[in-house]
Known about the structure:
Blueprint: H1 2-41, H2 52-75, E1 97-100, E2 103-106, E3 109-111, E4 117-119, H3 124-138, H4 145-149, E5 153-156, E6 160-165, E7 169-182, E8 185-197, H5 200-217, H6 219-231, E9 235-238, E10 244-247, H7 248-265, E11 286-291, E12 299-303, E13 309-312, E14 329-332, E15 334-347, E16 353-363, E17 366-367, E18 387-397, E19 406-411, E20 414-420, E21 425-431, E22 436-441, E23 448-452, E24 458-464, E25 468-476, E26 479-480, E27 485-490, E28 495-500, E29 505-508, E30 511-527, E31 530-539, H8 543-546, E32 550-559, E33 562-578, H9 580-585, E34 588-593, H10 602-614, E35 618-621
Parallel strand pairs: 18-24, 25-34
Antiparallel strand pairs: 1-2, 3-4, 5-7, 6-7, 7-8, 9-14, 10-13, 11-15, 12-15, 15-16, 16-17, 18-21, 19-20, 19-22, 22-23, 25-26, 25-29, 27-28, 27-30, 30-33, 31-32, 34-35
Helix pairs in contact: 2-3, 6-7
Amino acid sequence: MLVKEEEMDKKNKKAQVTVFIIIAVILVAAVALFFVLRENIFVGHSIPASIQPVYNTFLSCVEQDALTGIDVLESQAGYIELPDFEPGSAYMPFSNQLDFLGNPIPYWYYVSGNNIQKEQVPSKNLMQEHLGDYIENEIRNCVFENYYEQGFEITQGIPKASVNINDNTVSVDLDMSLSISKGEDSSVIKNHKLSVKTELGRLYNNAKKVYANEQNNLFLENYAVDTLRLYAPVDGVEITCSPKTWNADSVFDDLQNAIEANTLSLKVKGEKNDYFVVDAGTDSDIDVRFLNSKNWANGFEVNPSEGVVMMSKPVGNQPGLGILGFCYAPYHFVYNIRYPVLVQVYSDSSEEIFQFPVAVVLQGNKPREALDSSGSTIDAPELCKYKNTEIQVNVYDTKLNLVDADISYECFSEFCEIGKTSSGILRDNFPQCVNGFIAARAKGFEDTKYQYSTTNDGSADIIMDKLYEININLKLDNKDYGKDAIISFISDESSKTIVYPEQKIIELSEGQYEIQIYVYKNSTIKIAETTQEQCVEVSKSGLGGIFGMKEEKCFDIVIPEQIISNAISGGGKENYYILESELQNSKSIEINAESLPVPTSIEQLQSNYLLFEERGLDINFR
Length: 622
């Protein structure tokens, strides 16, 4: 029995030792696990009370950085890091960014300087990446100075932010080791999550709806066409025997003012029959504002025009057309218009605004072609895609001083922007062409073309004529004349016209000109109403028409009574070679013309045009 008891004691002792060993292993493992996972233990409410204010400040920094980044995204069309800058050109004034109150905003749609339609609409993923990168960069600048003075030790690790943009919130998940300690209290927090209240996601979604509507329906371009036809001369006929003129600068100024006002009148809420209401498909509580300013980059072109003068010339008063019995001045002007519109999307419940600009483009009085999702071109010249011949262009004035100028190349009616000279010199690749033209344009100089074949590398020297502003002093029968006249300087390269006396200054360069003066005075020519018979051949009705038989049908044309209140009563023309020295050393050109009889009938009016062809002019530089 004693032996058995001893054996039992030995077994119990072994069991006790085994239990202690197991407990020891568990304790060692628990301690090891504590040290391994301690960075993740103190989060949220596990942070000591003395350290919690520091962590709250850190979370406030994360939130403020997120809100600041969101504000930048909303104000910069969904971008924090802007796309690479692309400049515009003389042909297309847009860069890829709109300068709005000194801040660049990337266009969602624009036309590049080389006439290619482009889109740069950011995706939501790109916005999330930009915002995450912004938070990573800015969180290191969180200010803890007050806590350092209180004895806290704060260490930040490398941040890695993940952002998710929702309709009404932005979720931020920031992985970054943050160590905070003071005295015996310490915490290491690795993961930080917060949700920021913002309507960024919803505003962005509605902005894309407005943009899609514009790209599909071109509603901004259609409003632009209406504005053009309401505020500028496009098509029409004036019953007059004297030219009808417009000042292009004044027309463009009126048009810009109308575009600015009408664009601001556009809205997405209101009665359906309201002309200015746009059905953009936005949410019911979302509003949209459309902005334009004539101070933003824009382009206005009109043809035909002579300088700043748009003119419709009369028909019916020339020799041989007296049979018409009346005069009229038809006109048809073709405009190319380009301007930006800034779209601002906002809700009734917040102060947030998401904005993006688009370019509005009219080509030949018509809206541009709608752009598909992959982008396209507006008649992009095929020639310009293949620039493979290096040419050096040297630009001089007539005294061989170097001139900085914009250089382009024209070949078979195609136009390619090349670049701008630096200190009068440009070395760049040109498209290959035989007998094309290098064109130079510089402020204060006459536009110049130089015929040059670009089949081989080489260089070209271009000499530009300087433009001089000079006053025009018109005399009629050797007496100062201050009433209506049209003055033209016509050369092989260009034609310049002013409407006197509203315009008395003209820019001229050295060259051979035909100078023409048309003087107009009040007249009282009355043309009575007349009826003329007009006959035409038409197909016979019935069976005869089937076999191609014709018959004559006549009808009366009634020409209404007309009073010609303004008729040519003086002028003439003269060929004259203008020297640069005359332009440089003179303040004005004095032109004397002879008067003609004030016509009292359509026959006398036509006679005046015959006399005009024989009359010369006296030209003197003063």
